[in-house]
Amino acid sequence: MDITVDGLAKRYGEHLALEPVSIKIGQGEFVTIVGPSGCGKSTLLMMMAGLLAPSEGVVRLDDTPVDGPPQGVSVVFQDYGRSLFPWLTVRRNLAMAAVAQKLPRPVLEARIERVLASVGLAGQGAKHPWQLSGGMQQRVAIARALVAEPRVLLMDEPFAAVDAQTRADLEDLVLRLRDEYGVTIALVTHDIDESVYLADRVLVLAAGPGRLIRDIAVDLPTPRGQLTTKRLPRFADLRAEVFSLVMRPELQEVR
Ligand SMILES: Nc1ncnc2c1ncn2[C@@H]1O[C@H](COP(=O)(O)OP(=O)(O)OP(=O)(O)O)[C@@H](O)[C@H]1O
């Protein structure tokens, strides 16, 4: 599913949180969104998810305008602790996400088992979220987003609350899932290395007011690897480019 963001802007009362922004994200593309705190990253993502109404402009999925949470789009938030139901098992948490699809029970159960295996949680379905580590809970949140077989996955700092090792594992997991499920992904992050490592394109936003200042094509080879990719000179160049834009946007602005 393509995502077209056309002149999308957001005001909160008098405050202009995001100047009009236009972006196209192609089917199966992985785009990351970076920028300093308060530049409107979450605001942009929530409007793409149909969870927040824009003040101007429109989001289209393929050719259909978004005017509420659309079918085929799943969202993963940072705060997995609050996004899972603690009183339900992992399997029941996942089943809830596909309720609207009214799948026959065996189809739903097969999907749940497949998705749990995909995120490395085979055999954990009968546990409750609180019996799992933070990294495993975030895997459940990702699995839950996949159960409905979305065509678009929108992720808002999904790995911010886990340790570095788990974060690297989850990054690689999401890259693999993009290939396995062919989903289009937009992911908000504060982490510049992560923004380059994961992306086909990095969108850099600046603050005061929030605006898009650069759309960088990441011409690194695939498949990516934590060691192989991050030791490439080209990775260091891209990382430095994003870093300087995020830290000193006024020196770099091109449009
Ligand atoms: N519900 C709201 N009401 C009023 N202002 C808001 C609201 N949500 C966000 N803002 C403001 O809009 C701007 C953009 O916020 P947003 O959360 O989108 O930024 P962000 O880049 O995701 O920030 P962070 O990286 O800190 O999460 C900020 O100035 C914020 O204070």
Automatic annotation (TrEMBL):
Keyword set includes Zinc: no
Top-rank EC class of the record's enzyme: hydrolase
Top-level taxon: Bacteria
CDD domains to which the protein is assigned, alphabetical: ABC_NrtD_SsuB_transporters
InterPro entries per UniProt: AAA+_ATPase (IPR003593), ABC_transporter-like_ATP-bd (IPR003439), ABC_transporter-like_CS (IPR017871), ABC_transporter_ATP-bind (IPR050166), P-loop_NTPase (IPR027417)
Listed SUPFAM superfamilies: P-loop containing nucleoside triphosphate hydrolases
An annotated Gene Ontology molecular function: ATP hydrolysis activity
The enzyme's E.C. designation: 3.6.3.-
SMART domains hit by this protein: AAA (SM00382)
UniProt keyword terms in alphabetical order: ATP-binding, Hydrolase, Nucleotide-binding, Transport
Domain ABC transporter: 3-232
PANTHER family according to UniProt: ALIPHATIC SULFONATES IMPORT ATP-BINDING PROTEIN SSUB (PTHR42788:SF13), TAURINE IMPORT ATP-BINDING PROTEIN-RELATED (PTHR42788)
Protein's recorded name: Bicarbonate transport ATP-binding protein CmpC
Organism (species): Occultella aeris
Gene from which this protein is expressed: cmpC_3
